[in-house]
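Subject: for your reference before the review

Hello V.,

The reviewers asked for a structural picture of the protein, and I figured it would be easier to keep everything in one thread rather than splitting it across files. Below is the amino acid sequence we used in the manuscript, unchanged from the supplementary table.
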Amino acid sequence: MQRYKTLYSGVKLCQRLEPAQQIERFKHEFLPEELDYILASEEKRFLRTLGKKKQKIFHEFVLPYLKDPKGDVFKFDLSIAQRWILKRVFDLGWTVDKFGRFDRNLSYGSYTREANKSERIGKKYQWIAYHEFLAHIADNFEFTGDYESDNPPQHYHGSWQIGSGTRDIDPSLLLRKLQEPEDNQKKSTSVWWQPVEYVFNDADKQEKIAWIPKENDCPEPLKLIELTKPNDAQTWLTLEGHYRWTEPAPIEEEEFRNWRRDIQYQIQSYIVRQENLSEILAFLSGTHFMGRGMPESQYMLDVFVGEFPWSSSYINKKFDDVQDWVKICKGQETLPYPIVVTTTEYLREISTFDCSIDDTISALMPSAWLIKNMGLRWSGGKFSFVDSANEILAFNPLVEEVGPSACVISKEKLTRFLAENQLEIIWTVLGERMLIGGSNQNSHGRLELSGVYYLNQGVLRGEGLKAWHRVPESND
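And here is what came back from the structure prediction:
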């Protein structure tokens, strides 16, 4: 029984999580059908261990308790909400004469419940009535929080506590989607924040295999960290960036039919205290970051761009504890001194029903710690942040131009802030080069790259990339 109860609780938890949260917690995104199958299979297995009388007790008493442990204590008659919403739809003006034919034609042949689709006029009125009803409930009922939790009723601060998707439109973000290349062949095209081009020479299969372990043939990370924007001649520093150079496929060939060479970099920066810089650099020197999971930027769900990081919706979600000084890496290893992650990742998924975005929007921003301590504020325009003089200090270039995911900050303003507060900044680089597409591309392994960089009196320095050639063990 304990095994079934544990699995049941795990499945119900997973059903409440967004896909990104599932991946972060379980390293896997579960489809609804997959979760239903897991639960049904375990229930069948458990019932086979019971006699007929105990099976009846299980269905009449145990299963209802698992579905609603609090029983009638906080039970709400759902039919009240359904009747109120239906009446409100008619009050708002929906009639068969006005909208019946349109709604029937729109729904014809479409029975899917997916979020991103055209909806009936009647359904739009239902959404309006539904949110009005939630407002009445919030004003007149005590908030209990997680319905499967044994905690006492909690204080209600805002609609972000009700559940993911309740605040489905971000009014501070008018983007429908981020800029993206038309096809993967554009991944080798350079932009000002990825000024390093990589030219893939013609090569046969053996030459492509021999290309993998070449350590002296990798893009220079220094050129990706310190940048110059052409139209303003300012110098910018990358806080975080994800870069890729992919060998184009011949125009007449399917994209992944044959082997293609591929290089990827992930650059992440951290704030360290001045007196700890030497020891942290020594500790990280020669480290293989593929094996040591350094602290990373966290996903920020259900918080609007314009609310970050000052609003109750952000503060009550307790994001701050992962954006302040940390020592623990993902692998539970401990750094010698605490560091600050400099970025946060905004995430708004396309799975919401409002259809206000055409694709999932994932964009890097400065971390809460950096915004608060540098005195930054949201500019009112997309993912850019300004100082008290209304000058842009940090922004995401992907918003305006096709290119890699990144967040950059003014070198002049950042170095001044660091000097005034006895702080320093370091960068870690994690990369790999390998073959993609075709068959058996993994049998030749990959070259994994790691490096550490820092500013020394305003000059970017580093030890260069260290390399590890990983070849899968033979099954012979």
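For the response letter, the relevant points are probably these. Residues 212 and 222 are 22 Å apart (CA to CA). Residues 80-156 form one domain.

Happy to draft the paragraph if you're swamped.

O.
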